[in-house]
Amino acid sequence: MVLLLFFAFLSGLVTILAPCIWPLLPIILSATFGSKSHHRPLGLTLGIMVSFAVITLTISSLVKLFHFDPNVLRLLAVVVIGFLGLTMIIPALSKITEGFVSRLSGIFGSKVQQGSGFGPGFITGLSVGIVWSPCAGPILAAIAALAATGKVTGSVILVTIAYVMGVGIPLFIFAISGQTIFNKVKFISSHTGRIQQVFGVIMLLTALAIYTNYDTYLQAQLLNKFPQFSSALNGFESQNVVSQQLNVLKGNNSQTPKIDTMALFNTNYPAPDFVGITKWLNTEKPLTIANLKGKVVLVDFWTYTCINCIRTLPFVTSWYDKYKDQGFVVVGVHTPEFAFEHETTNVLNAIKMYKIHYPVAQDNDYSTWNNFNNQYWPAEYLIDANGNVRRTHFGEGEYDQTEMAIQALLKEAGHNIQSKLDNMPDQTPTTQLSPETYLNSDRMQYYYPGGNAGSADNENFMLSDKIPVNSFSLGGYWTIDANSATSGQDGVLTYHFYANKVFLVLSPGSNTNPKIKVMLDGKILNSSNSGSDVSNSMVTVDSDRLFNLIDLKGNIGEHTLRLEFQTPGIQAFAFTFG
């Protein structure tokens, strides 16, 4: 435990170097400018530490208890930061605020000298801590997952405190260093009023950025621009000793599988149960690992817009249909990635589309996902008749090995298996394709600004020279939020890709069957390159699902896709490639 506390402290300490904290540095400088006392940097730092720790550990429980939208806290932070920005622009308002904070402190028995700035600094820090989303490594991710599932123990609290103490030290040094420089430079001293007003404007602009979610977009761009920082900072957290300590923290120390994907049976530990299931589909009653004992069970984690899952489903459904009468059960755990995937109707439509006859559990709250300590779509957990996980496989492929393992466990359970292995083609990509690309602000990467997405010269189309491969650009008007990118007037999206097939998760929003014009290398599509959801170079967004836009019929190559959104309000989520 002491070792984990040390690594948590060290993780917080080096967070100052991570791109996700850089957008906060100007507001920290702004909040400390104009005060000669060290009380304001101290108040600011303590405010960030306190609010971030409290929000991280309690927000999930508070939302469940009081049933409020957590965005209310974000809006409150916007108001506070914006108001403090106004106090820097309007000196009279600043004096009134300082006086009010001092009197309020006196009421609660705290003697804070007027003009020290501790109170405004602390309030600003509280607001910043609410809206700050640090680059989460394994340690912070474990804390967040445990807090979200209500497993906040004394150990979790100690690890969180160690982390925020590590964050607080460099933030305080940065704040007090900036304050010292401001106070000692003569030019700044002689223009304090004007410079303070400039910083006030910075705080107002920061509040506006937070309100419009532009702060998360900026963080995503910085992470995309400087990926080496996050990789380096998270690297030391991935060491075996840290992973072991985190497993102890999560209570998984006795059930962590040792995975060797080259072996037929690569693990042996008691299977976790299905917990927190929102709704069971294709079955009359809920299932448990206990009542499935005696059967061989394949637990398949999937989500219906995941192209990797979709390519796996024909094998999973075939295994179920082949072995269901010989003691074999498949349980599909549908854990959603996007908001619309929580809808039961959408999942039922997918079940019908992919001819899924086995039970499906809607794991909307990630409860079973976390209980299995899962991290992937798709993920397969093969459980023997005694209720032990004997084989795990993550991602596509190894279908023959999985079916051989199913047969071996059925024979082990006393069944006479004589079926041949499936002879279906394995569609797992064997070459390096363009990566999965998210369009929402929280996970956006590969965005290339200035790519001239709004114009195209059909006779001399050279957009690939302007947009790097595996990058996309936007033209026209767009609304980017934490969930999706929504088209506005004249919305255009271009992607310079390398693949055989291009897929995009889309939602019509509030529209009825809106359309998108699809072009490849500046030309309309034809039978040699049109995806299955495209007709006459147009795709109709008829539901919330994955759409096949491009199919080069096996001729993998480098091309530029151009999408012209004919109707505002269409939501785009993520590209995948085949």
Describe what this molecule looks like in 3D.
Helices cover 42% and strands 17% of the residues. The protein has helices spanning 2-14, 25-32, 39-66, 71-89, 91-107, 118-131, 138-148, 154-184, 186-190, 192-211, 214-225, 227-235, 240-249, 307-323, 344-353, 367-371, 399-412; strands at residues 269-270, 279-281, 296-302, 328-334, 360-362, 379-383, 388-394, 437-438, 471-475, 478-480, 485-487, 492-499, 501-507, 515-520, 523-524, 534-535, 538-540, 545-551, 557-565, 571-577. The protein is globular and about 90 Å long. The protein has 3 domains: 2-237, no CATH class; 257-412, Glutaredoxin (3-Layer(aba) Sandwich), CATH 3.40.30; 437-577, Sandwich (Jelly Rolls), CATH 2.60.120. By secondary structure, it is α+β, with helices and mostly antiparallel strands. The chain has a 7-stranded mixed beta sheet with strand order 1-7-6-3-4-5-2, with helices on one face. Strand 4 (328-334), helix 15 and strand 5 form a beta-alpha-beta unit.
Q: What brief labels describe this structure?
A:
alpha+beta, Glutaredoxin, Jelly Rolls, 7-stranded mixed β-sheet, 7-stranded antiparallel β-sheet, 17 helices, 20 strands, globular
Task: Describe the structure in brief.
About 40% of the residues lie in helices and about 15% in strands.
Q: What layout of secondary structure does this protein have?
A:
Layout: H1 2-14, H2 25-32, H3 39-66, H4 71-89, H5 91-107, H6 118-131, H7 138-148, H8 154-184, H9 186-190, H10 192-211, H11 214-225, H12 227-235, H13 240-249, E1 269-270, E2 279-281, E3 296-302, H14 307-323, E4 328-334, H15 344-353, E5 360-362, H16 367-371, E6 379-383, E7 388-394, H17 399-412, E8 437-438, E9 471-475, E10 478-480, E11 485-487, E12 492-499, E13 501-507, E14 515-520, E15 523-524, E16 534-535, E17 538-540, E18 545-551, E19 557-565, E20 571-577
